[in-house]
Amino acid sequence: MSLTSSPAHSQRSANLRLPRLSAKPIGAAALALPTLAPLLALLLAWLDFDLATWVHLWETLLPEMLMSTAGLVVGVSIVTLALGISLGWLTARYIFPAVSALRLALVLPLAIPSYVLGFVYVGLLDYAGPIQTTLRHLLGEAFEFEVRTLLGAIFVLSLALYPYVYLFAQAAFQEQSAAHQDAARAMGYGSWATFWRIALPLARPSLAAGWALVMMETLTDFAVVRYFNVITLSEGVVRLWVGQMDREAGVQVASLLMGIAFAVVAIERSLRRRARYTQLGSQTRPLARTRLRGWRAWLATGYASLVLVLAFGLPGSQLVIWAIEDVSSAAPGTLEAVFGAYLLNTLLLAGSAALLVILVAIGLGWLVRANDAPSPLLRTLARAAALGYAMPSAVVAIGVLLLLAPLNAPVAAWTGGAFLLSGSLISVLYGYLVRFLAIGMNGVESSLEKISPAMEMAARTLGAHTARVVMHVYLPLMRGGVLTAALLICVDVLKELPLTMFLRPFGMETLSTWAYMLSSESAWVGASTPALVIVGLSLLPTMLLMRRAVLTEVQLR
Amino acid sequence: MSTHALKVRLLSRRYGAVVAVDSASFCLDQGEIGVLVGPSGCGKSTLLRLVAGLEPPDSKPGAQIVIGGNVVFDADAGLDLPADRRGVGLVFQDYALFPHMTVAANIAFGLHHWRKAEREARVRELLSWVRMEALAERYPHELSGGQQQRVALARALAPRPTVVLLDEPFSNLDQSLRSELREEMRALIKQSGATALFVTHDREEAISLADKLIVMHEGRVIQSGAPHQLYWQPENLAVATLLGEANVLEGMAVNGYAECILGRVPLARSTQGRVHLVLRPEAVQVTPDAHGEVVVERVTYFGHDQLLTLRLANDAMLLARVSGVQRFAPGQRARAAVIAPAAAIRADE
């Protein structure tokens, strides 16, 4: 706002009043740029474009990586949309046995990270697993099927991720007004046509948001695809960077992956452009739910229950069974010692990441808000700083490593070789900051919205200084929203696998890396205990979601 | 130093190329209720925020704000006190009560420098003054709109500010509640002895609240004074039309009278030459007369009164507001007479 006033003027008022705009873009840039920098570093890597690397990639892994990624993206999109829309429609519009319980419980699978669900299913369905063993008993020794395929990976990822679509779809169908549907009915549309012509297009922006979340998780996954022997781009990055130590090729593939992630964001934005029209109906008469009768009712209950059992009940029970086996078979004391150390590491990382993210988010929120009319530049910076959430973890990790690499040698020299920057608490926390800043900013912004500018002015004209305004107005009103965001960040860090794997200090194990390490060696029983703890803790924010019953975009933006 | 409770001189505020407030000057006496009125976008809210210290005025030579004898802004001296040191109270459109504090804590917020016993006594005094003793421990969301407004007023007045500023405080209320609460708030402010400055775009609200109306148009203060004076003696057409329905007729003024299509009309102030005559509809008396020179074109009947649209001999239209007793019908002939002095605005101005 005082961008346009004379320099002399803004300087003078800066001395007498709250600091005015002049310092703010710089402050915001100082906070936003570090979180953007890893992505920029990856973009800049294109300057080192090396045809030979690409030719080599094309002759080796690239075609397979592209095909599998495309297959996975299309497959998971179709299945999650089909599951999410059908379940959302059923629970929003119909009454059938146990519908209220199912409406909430269908969110539960969110508590099981996909890499946990993945190893449980591989363990269950593998040649040596209980299901194939049983079938061999019944059908003869020759019976065998291969579970480690693209279809298997699609099956597992879809079961793990459909709740994102379901949550948005359910909310959208529930808030649609009766008037539109009645109008369509009056014009002679049947209920099937009404669904396709009215309800589904109206829900489009919400469905796009849910789909984008599914895609982000699909692109970031490298564990499930590894269990199922599918080489996607994410898996390729890990394979190239860690396995073959081919940094250059790893960077190029990571930047390709980043391009796809940007495309997902762009598609989501364009599908959501008219997002407002979902809210138009919220004022009007809500739809009455239809009661299903007879076999239809039981079919609906059966279908929803089957999905819930496959995505949560069955894998959850298997985890418990394995964990009991693990705990009872372990030598006394060993499990507790290892477990205690890893749990402590996990909590340390989660706690410090949450603190860091919240502090940066508060700084950015404050800077954007302290302006009466934030400049477009400032808003764009704040938005861009949150972009890391849409990026696959492998992309963020490699961006961070690229950025820190030039500092490695000086830091090592300075500390006498005792400290490697790109495998330290600093690098891993940096990665978490980039990836989870969006959650923090969302929490901070939604709590700031409760505080009208007039409220701050009222406090000021009542003689309150900045410190008093912060202590008595901002802090008490923001506490709830900020603590919720901190909890979500903690759980996301607890579940996060690729970033932790790439960026953690050497030898530092967390619950997620431990579970993954054991499961990648097919040690299902050993992996089940840390996995069960992760699921248990993830239930907390899932319950939070269930209580609100509607995903108010806490997860994103 | 003047004895005005609030003196504003030559304040301006531009946003880029847009001049929101342009060399505005006005003053208020101790205990006086001033109302800034004008169409939306005329700069009245900005002017209020400049006075409160929530926004910096442009530092044009001579620009000054004096509150209770203390200079709080002076462009020449480079002085600009922040909002918390100006001695103003503020009541917002949405009241901006702190949602996490009780009514009593809200009122006590500005009294943090006071000793505990005095603070508690002051809060009790204000609570009883706004008749909210029973609701002291309620939270804002548990109050009605009118109650929230009273709490906001009590909170703003608690530290005994010299001037209390109120930004469209009635716009969030039901139409039916407004006039009642307006009376109530005016009485409360008068009783407290505070000087008040309201902002509103509602002319009825402005006229009924104000001791002194300050009319703004395109960033400038175009006239200020007592409501009756501004209503009957507007100095320009913008003020005339902003404050109520007005017939504007061409005329030729000679001392205390002007000649126009209605004949000889008395003037509120004598002048000479070509003038625009501003004639309020209620200053026109209409008598049914089959040989009258005007024709009733349209009748809008309100019960207590009615608004007649009359066609004059030269086909111009004239609005007349007359009592609802007499019955008029479209097409009827009548006589029109002017029964109150008209305002004359020089046509060359």
Question: Could you characterize what this model shows?
Answer:
The complex is a heterodimer of chains A (557) and B (349). Chain A is mainly α and 557 residues long. Chain A has a single domain, classed as MetI-like (MetI-like fold), CATH 1.10.3720. Chain A is 76% helix and 1% strand. Chain A contains 24 helices and two strands. Chain A has helices at 7-16, 24-44, 51-59, 62-93, 99-105, 114-125, 130-139, 150-175, 178-186, 191-220, 223-227, 233-243, 247-271, 277-280, 294-329, 334-370, 376-385, 393-414, 425-449, 453-461, 466-495, 498-503, 511-520, 524-548, and strands spanning 94-95, 290-291. A two-stranded parallel ribbon of chain A has the order 1-2. The two termini of chain A are 26 Å apart. The model of chain A is unreliable at 1-21, 276-284 and 549-557 (pLDDT under 50). By secondary structure, chain B is of the alpha+beta class. Chain B has two domains: 6-87 and 161-240, P-loop containing nucleotide triphosphate hydrolases (Rossmann fold), CATH 3.40.50; 245-346, Beta Barrel (OB fold (Dihydrolipoamide Acetyltransferase, E2P)). Chain B is built from eight helices and 19 strands. Chain B has helices at residues 44-52, 103-108, 116-129, 145-157, 175-192, 203-209, 227-232, 237-242; strands spanning 6-15, 18-28, 33-37, 64-67, 70-74, 79-80, 88-91, 163-167, 195-200, 212-217, 220-225, 247-260, 263-279, 284-288, 294-301, 305-311, 317-323, 333-338, 343-346. In chain B, the strands form four sheets. A six-stranded mixed beta sheet of chain B has the order 7-8-9-3-10-11, sandwiched between helices. A five-stranded antiparallel beta sheet of chain B has the order 2-1-4-5-6, covered by helices on one side. Chain B has a five-stranded antiparallel beta sheet with strand order 14-18-15-16-17, with no helix packed on it. In chain B, strand 15 (294-301) and strand 16 (305-311) form a beta hairpin. In chain B, helix 4 (145-157) packs parallel to helix 5 (175-192). The longest helix of chain B is centred in the middle third of the chain and has 18 residues, at 175-192. Chain B is globular, with a radius of gyration of 24 Å. Chain B starts with 5 loop residues before the first strand and ends with a strand. The mean pLDDT of chain B is 90. The interface between A and B is medium-sized, with 29 and 37 residues.
